[in-house]
Every structure is written in C-alpha cells, then in structure tokens.
Design brief:
The protein is 37% helix and 12% strand. It is of the alpha/beta class.
C-alpha cells in the first residue's frame, strides 16, 4: 500500500513538535529544546527531499538517501519524523525512554528500530560515520545523497575537524551536513562556553562548500538543499549553517539553554500544546 504523504511541511512540523513535548513529558526526561528547533529541517528532509524506503528498511541503504543524527540527544524529533513517515507505528512514540523500549534516549541499533543505522549521541562522531557511508556510495556509483545534522556546540569536538579535513581531501561531494546554529548548549550559550568564531570562514578554509539558511523557513531550507545537491561533481562537500532558535514553537522554551534537557510538567505541557496545531492526530 502506498503511504499518503502530506504536502504541507509546516503542518507536519507542528505535529512533530507536539509529539516532542508529549514524549519528553511522558518520560519525565529528554531533550526538547534542540528537538523543537530542528523539527522543520527533519520534516522537510523525510517528507519531501529524501529518496527512501520506509516500508522496507535495509541497513545497507543502497540506492537510498541516508540521514545520520550526530547530536543524538535530540532523538525525540527524529523518532517523531520516522514514525510519521511510516518506519514504525506512531503509537510506539508513547514508549519513549520507557523500560524495554526501542526508543531509547539516544538512538541505538541493538533493538533494530527501522530508520536507525548507527548509535549516536557521543558528540563528534557522526560526521566520520556519514563520510564513510558517502564515500562508499561514490565508490559504488550510487547517485544518492548522505545528510547529517550536528549541534553547533558539537563543533567544539576535535573529531569534527579531522573528518572535515578528510572529506575535502577525498573530494566527498555527495554529503550535505547541517549545523544547528542555535547558539545554545547544555551549560549556556556557545559564546560563553567556547566561542565558535567565524564558522563560515572556518568551514571554507577546510575546503567545504558553505551555505547559510533560516532553519525555520521551508523555502530557505529548500534552497539550501537544492544548492547542496547542485554542488555534486565539484569535489567539495557541503555544509549548511542553519540558523535556528532552541525551543522553537513554544514561547517559554525559545532561545534559552535551560530547556536543553529537562521535561515540561503537566501545566507546561498544556501551555506548549496550546501553541502547536494538531495536524496529523496525536498518538
């Protein structure tokens, strides 16, 4: 049976945000801030951009676009999008972080959850893994694309820059890496914890094709993806510096690191849900 895919990305993202706050509230733990901030990107990738087979998930990902979530602590947004896209039942979202659940706090592979190809959340590692997958596709004449997502605070990890050097050296141009530039991390602003400096110049100096976009504007995201895809054949990997607001969609969560990793209480959940349209039906 062919799965009907809604065409309104903003509506999908709103439902995903509802899922996020309900999942984290239900588990009394999790990471709502970054998840809410990346709902627009993941909705667009999974419902409009990526070539994938949700009904017959295979780990090798041959002839499919691949996505790797490096900052795995924002698993709620990924689980929601995967379920809504048909990788596993939407009702399973209610098991998030529960005993024996496949939906662990950080994505893992031992339970065989469709859509998950690597365990992630140990920051800095996702780009290296994704580059291995992307280079494999190039060697196998697989025309599909590898997408990754990273937190801006994650760029404080040295392995990111080792991987960045490797990608440019090997001319891996079938990868588009998004950086969630929300300026916040667990202990405060990125500026206070460890300034990231001029990311555009840094990635450019490492030999990458550097783009910028508004992570909450679907047209801006579409333009970034299209530009990244058109870069194929240039010999340069692509990175997109995606400006977002942590906690986007819930006014009392927006723009602060305080909602990086805490769950809303009952009253806060109701206040959050009152700001988010239910478009696909709650689980």
């Amino acid at each position: 049976m062919t799965r009907m895919i809604p065409s309104d990305m903003t509506a999908i993202a709103s439902q995903v945000r509802r899922d996020i706050v309900r999942m984290v509230h239900g588990a009394s733990s999790g990471h709502p801030g970054g998840s809410l901030g990346c709902a627009d990107l993941l909705s667009l990738l999974y419902f409009e951009v990526m070539q994938l087979n949700a009904e017959n998930f295979l780990m090798d990902g041959k002839d499919e676009d691949l996505f790797f979530l490096s900052n795995g602590h924002i698993s709620p947004v990924w689980y929601s999008v995967l379920a809504r896209r048909g990788f596993f039942p939407v009702a399973e979202l209610a098991t998030f972080r529960k005993l024996n659940s496949r939906l662990q706090g950080h994505p893992a592979t031992e339970e065989g959850l469709p859509g998950i190809r690597i365990a992630s959340g140990s920051l800095g590692q996702g780009l290296s893994v994704a580059l291995g997958a992307a280079e494999t596709k190039l060697l196998n004449d697989d025309s599909c694309t590898v997408y990754t997502l990273h937190g801006d605070g994650e760029l404080q990890e040295g392995q990111i820059w080792e991987a960045a050097m490797y990608a440019a050296h090997r001319k891996i141009d079938n990868i588009i890496s998004f950086i969630d530039c929300n300026g916040q991390q667990i202990d405060g602003s990125t500026e206070d914890v460890m300034s990231l400096g001029d990311l555009f110049s840094k990635w450019s100096a490492f030999g990458w094709n550097v783009l910028q976009c508004d992570g909450h504007d679907m047209d801006s995201l579409r333009e970034a993806v299209a530009s990244g895809l058109s870069n194929r054949g240039s010999g340069k990997p692509t990175v997109v510096l995606m400006k977002t607001s942590m906690g986007k969609g819930v006014d009392f969560m927006e723009g602060t690191h305080k909602w990086h990793g805490i769950a809303p209480n009952d009253d806060q959940l109701e206040a959050a849900l009152s700001q988010l349209d239910q478009t696909l039906g709650d689980y």
